[in-house]
Design a protein that fits this description.
14% strand; alpha+beta; Butyryl-Coa Dehydrogenase, subunit A, domain 1; 48% helix
C-alpha cells in the first residue's frame, strides 16, 4: 500500500491550517492569561464566533454522516484536521461531531442526544474509569439496579474528560453482577445515557496540566429504561469501541503539537547566538532537530494508517494502539528537546512550551496507558491475531 493524500485532502489541510494560523494562534496569549487567572480559556462569546466561522467555511461536521448534515469525509480527514488543530493549544474543535457510540442510539435517543450534540447545543462525556478501575473493567463497582421501568445508579467515576461541562453522560454500570464476574467484565455491564438533571454531580479534579477532568458521583440516580444505549449487559463492547476510536486520535494530536514545537525550536535556534554562532550550527542542536523530524514523520504515518484502515472498514485496534503508544511518547520526547533547545526561556511561562510539556505527559496515560498499549500489541502478536507486516 502506498498511502498518499488526495487533492481534496490536501485542500482541506491547507484551509484548516490557514484557519488555525489566522483565527486560533493569535488567541494563545489570551488563553494563557485566562488559564493562569482561573478563567475559562475562551469566553463563550468568542467560542461561538469561532464556531460560526467554521460553519461558514464548511468545516462543521467533517466526519458527521451526511444524513445528519455533515460532510462525512472520513477518518483520514479527521486525522488530518486534528493534526492541524493541535498545532495550537487554543481549545477549539471543528464541531458537528458526537461521540462515536452515540450513533448506536435508537431514533428517540438520536433526536434527544445525538442531533443536539452534533449541532453544538449539548455537550456529552463518556464515563467508564473509576477510582479502582481503568482499562481493567473487571474492577468496575458502579451498579445499576432495576426498579420498575427505571434503573437506579450508584457509584463513582473519575478522570472524566468534559465531565464538568457535560449536559449528559454515557456511563457504564454493572447490571448483572453474576454475569460480570463469570465473564471477567466482558458482559453484565450496560451503558446508560444520563442527563445531569437526573441527579449526578461532578467535581473538578486538579491536575499538573490545564486538562480539567471530573469526578462524577451517582447517588440513587434514577434513569428510565429507554435511556439504555445499545444492548442490556453489552456495554463492554460499546466502551471498547469508544476507547479504540480515541486512541489513534491521541497520536494525531501529538503529531500536530510536535510539528508546531519543532518549528519553534528551528526558528529559535537560528536566532540564539552562543560563542559567536547561532546554535543552529551546533551539532548537538542539529541532531535533536533531526531526530524529532524523523519521529514526527513516523508517528504521522502510524496515525494515518490507523485512520485509513478504519475508513476501509477494517479492524484498526492494533494499529490504533501502535499509533497511540508511539505518538504519545514521540510527543513527550519532542517537547523535552524543544524545551532544552530554548534553555531557560523554554522553562518560563513567557512561552507556551512549558504548558505543552505538562499537557504532553498526559498523552501517555489517558485512553489507555503505555503499559496497556504494549500488552495489547504483544498479545495480538503472540496469539496470532496480527501477523508481522500485516498492517501494510
Amino acid at each position: 500500500m502506498h498511502l498518499r493524500l488526495t487533492d481534496e485532502q490536501k485542500m482541506v489541510q491547507k484551509t484548516i491550517r490557514r484557519f488555525v494560523e489566522k483565527e486560533l494562534i493569535p488567541l494563545e496569549n489570551d488563553v494563557l492569561r485566562n488559564e493562569r487567572e482561573g478563567r475559562p480559556s475562551l469566553p463563550p462569546g468568542k467560542l461561538k464566533e469561532l464556531q460560526l466561522k467554521a460553519k461558514e467555511a464548511g468545516f462543521w461536521g467533517i466526519n458527521t454522516p451526511e444524513e445528519y448534515g455533515g460532510a462525512n469525509l472520513g477518518q483520514m480527514m479527521m486525522a488530518i484536521v486534528l493534526m492541524e488543530v493541535s498545532k495550537t493549544f487554543v481549545p477549539f474543535q471543528f464541531g458537528g461531531s458526537a461521540d462515536n457510540i452515540l450513533y448506536y442510539g435508537n431514533e428517540e435517543q438520536k433526536k434527544n442526544y445525538l442531533i443536539p450534540t452534533i449541532n453544538g447545543d449539548k455537550k456529552s462525556c463518556f464515563a467508564m474509569t473509576e477510582p479502582g478501575a481503568g482499562s481493567d473493567t473487571r474492577n468496575i463497582k458502579m451498579t445499576a439496579v432495576k426498579d420498575g421501568k427505571e434503573w437506579v445508579l450508584n457509584g463513582e467515576k473519575t478522570f472524566i474528560t468534559g465531565g464538568n461541562e457535560a449536559d449528559f453522560v454515557m456511563a457504564i454500570a454493572i447490571t448483572n453482577q453474576e454475569l460480570h464476574q463469570k465473564t471477567q467484565g466482558r458482559e453484565g455491564v450496560t451503558c446508560f445515557i444520563v442527563d445531569r438533571e437526573m441527579g449526578w454531580k461532578s467535581e473538578y479534579i486538579h491536575t499538573m496540566g490545564e486538562w480539567g477532568p471530573a469526578g462524577l458521583v451517582f447517588e440513587n440516580v434514577r434513569v428510565p429504561e429507554k435511556n439504555i444505549l445499545g444492548e442490556l449487559h453489552k456495554g463492554y463492547n460499546i466502551g471498547l469501541e469508544w476507547i479504540g476510536f480515541a486512541r489513534w486520535i491521541v497520536g494525531a494530536r501529538a503529531v500536530g503539537a510536535a510539528e508546531r514545537l519543532l518549528q519553534m525550536a528551528i526558528d529559535y535556534s537560528k536566532e540564539r547566538i552562543t560563542f559567536g554562532k547561532p546554535i543552529a550550527e551546533r551539532q548537538a542542536i542539529q541532531w535533536q532537530i533531526a531526530d524529532s523530524a524523523v519521529e514526527i514523520e513516523a508517528a504521522r504515518w502510524l496515525v494515518l494508517n490507523a485512520a485509513f484502515t478504519l475508513d476501509a472498514g477494517e479492524d484498526n485496534r492494533h494499529l490504533a494502539s501502535m499509533a497511540k503508544l508511539y505518538g504519545s511518547n514521540m510527543g513527550n520526547r519532542v517537547v523535552d528537546r524543544v524545551l532544552q533547545i530554548h534553555g531557560g526561556m523554554g522553562y518560563t511561562k513567557e512561552l507556551p512550551i512549558e504548558r505543552w510539556y505538562r499537557e504532553a505527559r498526559l498523552w501517555r496515560i489517558y485512553d489507555g496507558t503505555d503499559e496497556i498499549q504494549r500488552i495489547i500489541i504483544a498479545r495480538n502478536l503472540i496469539k496470532g491475531h496480527v501477523k508481522i507486516g500485516q498492517s501494510i
